[in-house]
Amino acid sequence: MNAYDFFANMAQGLSHTRRNELMWLFRDALTLDMANWAQYELSNEEALILAQKADRLLNIGEPLAHILGRTEFFWSNIHVTPDVLIPRVETEFLCDIVSRTVDIEQATILDMCTGSGCIAVSLAKKHPDWSVTAVDISAPALKVARQNALDNGVKIEFIQSDMWQNVTKMYDCIISNPPYISSVGMQELPDSVKNFEPHLALYGGEDGLDFYRNIATNASKHLKKEGYLFLEIGEEQGEKVAELLKANFDNVKVLKDLFKKDRYVIARGK
Ligand SMILES: C[S@@+](CC[C@H](N)C(=O)[O-])C[C@H]1O[C@@H](n2cnc3c(N)ncnc32)[C@H](O)[C@@H]1O
């Protein structure tokens, strides 16, 4: 069967999003312009591989990024495994805010809770003069992040640390997208997240705010005066996180994401 008919048969009755994901899966596997799918006869082996991948996507519910082993993020190609959170579009927007706001040449940047390294890698790539450090508690996540730095041709200092424990320097800018899902939220997560993404990357304690409490108390010890703090938050956490930060930071503001939901809290060092 030709690639186009094979795709069209599988795509029948799927939602728009699912069809799109299936298309990406085909595009990745075939490395062939879509315009040529109809003329391309699949070998039995190619058809089998595509059918197996489609089964993982459509029946098992595995995220597309896991099947492809990568995702696009803020103009970087990011390798992902089940050891790291799949980078989200909201976090790309956070990188955009950081990129447009930090006006310090040769800025020193700390990405706390780096996971795949998506924030650290893409900012280092966009701002070659910045000096970027990335922290995570998870050795397997750091392995993925190191690979991403290598693949994207950027130099990053990686530190394995339980939050600030092994962090010794002061920075011009601290960014963090920490785990922020509450106990109740964990039960409500879609299966594609609950079953495939690491608990360590998601769970933020009973009310989801444990990491923000930690950051509110400790980040100021590593942030220079008037340095920038950028946090990604859950959509209902804006006011609470802002309140936590007020004691140790100035100019605390809650910002919305592209979907008009509270998603970031930014502040300046005192
Ligand atoms: C929500 S994920 C964010 C990953 C990535 N920065 C992103 O935006 O896609 C949170 C990350 O925090 C890490 N983490 C969890 N507990 C930690 C701790 N105590 N200290 C440092 N990192 C931690 C997890 O391993 C995970 O990689």
Written overview of the protein:
There is one protein chain. This protein has helices at 3-11, 16-30, 44-60, 64-68, 89-101, 118-126, 139-151, 183-188, 191-194, 199-202, 210-218, 238-245; strands spanning 70-73, 76-79, 108-112, 131-136, 156-160, 171-176, 223-232, 249-256, 262-269. Helices cover 41% and strands 21% of the residues. It is of the alpha/beta class. The termini are far apart. The strands form 2 sheets. A 7-stranded mixed sheet has the order 5-4-3-6-7-9-8, with helices on both faces. Strands 1-2 form a two-stranded antiparallel sheet. It has 12 helices and 9 strands. Helix 2 (16-30) runs antiparallel to helix 3 and helix 5 packs parallel to helix 6 (118-126). The protein has 2 domains: 3-60; 74-269, Vaccinia Virus protein VP39 (Rossmann fold, 3-Layer(aba) Sandwich), CATH 3.40.50. S-adenosylmethionine (SAM) binds at residues 84-85, 87, 91, 113-116, 118-119, 135-138, 141, 162-163, 177-179, 200-201.
